[in-house]
Amino acid sequence: MFKTPLSVNLRIALSLLITFPTASSASDLDEAKNVLSKTNTAAATSQQRIDTSAQQSIQLSAEIEQLQQEVDNLQVYQGHLNALVESQTLEMASLEGQLDQINATRQGVVPLMYKMIEALKLHVEQDIPLNPTARQQRIARLDDMMPRADISDAEKYRRILEAYQIELEYGVKLGLYQGQILAGDQHLEVDVLHLGRLSLVARSLNGQNYWSWDTNNKEWQPLDLSMKTEIDKAYSIASQQIAPSMITLPLSLVSNSKIVSNTEQGQ
């Protein structure tokens, strides 16, 4: 059998090993490639995650900044609301104090109004019978008004003062109205003329009879027809048929007295 020298065999084996890699080396190379591919894929995925996280971080930072701005605005608004509430609290305390004062004032004003109405009734009863029906009706309306809830206390007080004002005007004007008088035992429809409260005269509707109020005796007394001209003149002035001028009228304060008045001043 032919035998090759050992050195030749060794070179041939090494050459074969270099020329033809072993199956084990090829498998390791494939595994290394797979690992490298997976590593690249993982690195790309990680980078994508990093990019996404960075973008989210930027977005969150912007949102935080916006929220911080809103918090700052809310703090300013909260301070404004606190000041507003404090002001409203002080205003409410002031209003409560005013309401207490109003209630205290009302407690004093309401009795005063009742006293004023009673004083007005007494005045009309004791006064000369000057337009008594209208005055009594006015007082009756005031009585009906007082318990009504739909009329304010201010309006009630105003109407009472208005009634007092009318009573005051009765005392300074030359006035004329139609009404009834009790002459003797007869109720007569007449035209009544008054010059303030100084003179109160009645004339029959046909203009033929005259009466004057006698305060001393509290009754209507017939007048002498000698004063007819002057009295008719006063009636014409009161009804604005002639211009105001000097007139002479019987004085109602004292029986059988007369008063001379310049109606230009009296009106």
UniProtKB/TrEMBL annotation:
Superkingdom in the source lineage: Bacteria
Keyword flag DNA repair: no
Pfam family name, one: DUF3450
Coiled-coil annotated spans: 50-105
Signal sequence coordinates: 1-26
Natural source organism: Vibrio ulleungensis
Name of the protein this chain belongs to: DUF3450 domain-containing protein
InterPro entries the record matches: UCP028069, WWE_dom
Residues in WWE domain copies: 197-267
Keywords, comma-separated and alphabetical: Coiled coil, Signal
PROSITE patterns membership: WWE (PS50918)
